[in-house]
# Entry
Amino acid sequence: MATTLKDVALKAGVSVKTVSNVVNNYPYVTDAIRLRVKAAINELQYQPNLSARYLRKGRSGILAFANPDLSNAYFSEIGQVVIEAAKARSYTVLLDHTGGERSNEQDVVRGLSPHLIDGVILSPFALEPEDLQPRQESIPIVLLGDRIYDVPYDHVTYDNVATARLATQHLLSLGRRRIAALGVQEAEARETETSRLRLRGYLEALEEAGVPLDPHLIIRGLPSFSRFYGARAMRQLLSLDTPPDAIFCFNDLLALGAMRAIFEADYRVPEDIAVVGFDDIEEGRYAVPSLTTIAPDKQKIGDLAVAFLLGRIDGTRTGPPERIEVSCQLIVRESSTLRG
Amino acid sequence: MATTLKDVALKAGVSVKTVSNVVNNYPYVTDAIRLRVKAAINELQYQPNLSARYLRKGRSGILAFANPDLSNAYFSEIGQVVIEAAKARSYTVLLDHTGGERSNEQDVVRGLSPHLIDGVILSPFALEPEDLQPRQESIPIVLLGDRIYDVPYDHVTYDNVATARLATQHLLSLGRRRIAALGVQEAEARETETSRLRLRGYLEALEEAGVPLDPHLIIRGLPSFSRFYGARAMRQLLSLDTPPDAIFCFNDLLALGAMRAIFEADYRVPEDIAVVGFDDIEEGRYAVPSLTTIAPDKQKIGDLAVAFLLGRIDGTRTGPPERIEVSCQLIVRESSTLRG
# Structure
């Protein structure tokens, strides 16, 4: 027979309520009592059954964070924030890797595991708005990123156009005029929304500055935002009759791949080619040279996503879904400044 | 009332068996029929209930990969292999981030979600052997890494002593004699098993070569294997009266942090200090200079872990648990070879 709270209470010589307080990590228990209860829990191999605990309220206590690519630190860094924020509210987060495939994302929305998961934070990549029509049995969803508009879910994002313009203006302010844009990503044979918005910001900055556009400097059709495709695209740009003197990469992984290709071709960063990325992943801070980038407020993205989701789950957040934009800032590092 | 397979079959004008074949992605259905069934599924908003499908066999169809640090690409790269291998067998993988905390790891072993998960691949960090005693209701577990011995679970690992010796021998073969070891990691105030084994390999290589040991060159007490602590430890080594001429880092993130600190102090890699890491994460291949490292066979680790786990789940793998070692190889890159 399974060990119960009562067995633990008897063993520890305390009340069931006290055992419950320890199991729930409530603060009203002295350290001595806590240790005694934990010893009893260990001895009896009592399993604090979170499932049972939440199921009383019809909940599993588990959230999912579904994202296209955990090997991209942008998502794993937001994942860490989500895990911490959820933990502070006694929720566990499982990470679901969709690979950016529409069918996997559809599974997430349809509730692959409707009795397992109380709510989902979804960073969609290939999903279309029609996939996101609500259904009666739907669990709450919070969306991240710029992929989907006009859907009945809370949505945390930032202004991709303005930030891409800022990144490009920074390169213009260094006196660079042949600024490449790397790269426009495609999913299911269409440009992704994020790419489209960042490209628009780049184009707006060039136009404002009266710098003519050279279409050869825009790299399109990237299958993914990876170091590999960044390096490959950069080699293509370096083979132009007049290579670029600066490059705005649509994420940091592309930029790190591009810097590697620049190094291999014996050009210097930033003297010959200044580089700006997007995401502010930790790797860029340690790169040689360190990477100038756009830093979305990842802490706020993760915190808001969890707060919105738990609010929908526990019913404290009502009213129509909101679209919230967090701030981004330009962080200037060695890849766009000469070392003194 | 929920839509059933039968409703879909009626709508599409096919048999229930055909709908089932489409839902299960079996190959015996023509594209035309598949499209018709999918249209009916969409129209009726039928939810292919994977849970129900597996629950007939008493299974959820979900595996967990629990690991201490998804922001370390070593784990996310193995995670990718696990996801792919599981997907080929129609299993979904959820990633559980333990943060390397013993209590979280205990939760995993005790089955935080016993009705949710069919089996667990666990890469433990702080867990002690006594935490891993089997219990009647335990779900199958496969262990990765060198932390735990003599437990009743299949275990996929590699020879840390031999590979650390190999890394150190490589630096010795370059004529380096002041070779630092960075670093020994501690969990719950004890050296981790992985650290201990890698340190042993380093010491054996020095001893075989007759190179006297300078204890100042061994960095101990690292809270985690991160770029931050790698950079910090390297600054400490560079402040010695005679800094090292080579450094063996116990993982790639430490090595990448160390390379950044070497760059900031205006030393050169590899001319002044040769650097070797461990894990062969993608970042090291794109670093400037690219990072020499030890590459465990991550593909095989992930494939074996999934094969063993599914074998235990479906009962085709019987007999006592095994401990399997996969191979590792030294990959020499720019951080330990002069550019020609």
Chain B touches chain A through 46 residues (CB under 8 Å). The longest helix of chain B spans residues 298-314.
